[in-house]
Amino acid sequence: MGEYGDLSYTTTSSSSDIASFFGGGLLIVMLVISLVILISIWKTFKKAGQPGWATLIPIYNTYVLTQIAKLPAYYILLTFIPVVSIYAMFKINIEIAHNFGKSTGFGIILSLFSWIGYPILGFGNATYIDNENNLHFYQDKKEHQIDENVHNIISTSNYIIYTKIENNDIKYYISNGQEKKLFEIKSLNTCLTSSNMYCLTSDGILYSIDNNLKINKLADKIYDDIYKYNSELYVIGMKDNQNNLYKIKNDNIEEVDSNIASSSIKVVNDKLFYLKAKDKNYDLYRYDGQKSILLREKINKFYIIDKNIYLLKDYNEEDLTGSLYLYNEKEDKLLINKVTDLK
Q1: Cβ contacts of residue 325 below 8 Å, gap of 6+?
Q2: Which of 81, 48, 80, 82 is closest to 67 using CA atoms?
Q3: Tens digit of pLDDT for each residue in 271-304?
Q4: 3-state SS of the chain: helix, strand, coil percent to 5?
Q5: Is 49 left (phi over 0), alpha (psi -120 to 50) or beta?
Q6: How many CA atoms lie within 13 A of 241 on its CB side?
Q7: What does pTM read for this prediction?
Q8: Residues 76 and 59 sit within 8 Å (Cβ to Cβ)
Q9: Fewest Cβ atoms nearer than 10 Å: which of 53, 148, 191, 317?
Q10: C-alpha Rg value of the chain to the nearest Å
Q11: Is 268 exposed, middle or buried (0-12, 13-18, 19+ CB in 10 A)?
């Protein structure tokens, strides 16, 4: 009886110790996260030309956030109203993201996952457009004004691409944080970084930009988008009246495959898929970085959802329906007939 009593006491004591250990560990993790957020917002305030110590003062720190977001001060009051406060904080964070050259999606991350978003702003190379539309760059705790009368920040990945309104026209500029250079294009589609930065314009011209801001035209008739797969970049370009898949390598483009269906490239789970036109149908291929592997012949479209590949076959142009299959290496599984395009 005494032994069981001692055993019961020991077990209860051990459980209590374990609970205390994990409870204390969780508290330490929470304190570390809070400290990271605090320091990140402090650095973000300073990047925006605001005092870092304002982070520590309740209500006033919200006022500073509205100033960085370039929103009216009454947004402070909105943060105290139930339900409305949710809209107010999302709006503030989204406008802060925009003023740092980030997307609306990044503003949502600031709102929902501040421990992720604010460290990116505070410790990263994000630049800020102040109330006078001056563009500032921060590096090694030093501030450098890049330009004035800036209209919008397009990209801050390795290089800063921004626009200005000059003589009623939108002008594109590119900067490495110190120097700036006019980027003589009409409109920009997308930019991605590999060894250099590669930018695709809306009229299908592909440019390369190196660390010294030297701009090289690599190719024209490049359409669709720039795709990143295994740290390498790929594009679809037109040659001899057909679309070809190209790899960008050392400021050259190398042909990977020909007769590619436009807008058919998908990079999912570190795999690159595309369709190749054949007669009135398409063949599905997977590219492994060295060679193209045929996965399935005579399909109309393919979709990748939750790591599964779905194939649309036997598409009828009259009733706009086809048969949907689940791809399998041995034999595809029919899921449903008379299905419309999933898009």
Answers
A1: 310, 311, 312, 313, 332, 333, 334, 335
A2: 48
A3: 899 999 988 889 999 998 889 999 999 999 999 9
A4: 30, 40, 30
A5: left
A6: 0
A7: 0.65
A8: yes
A9: 317
A10: 27
A11: exposed
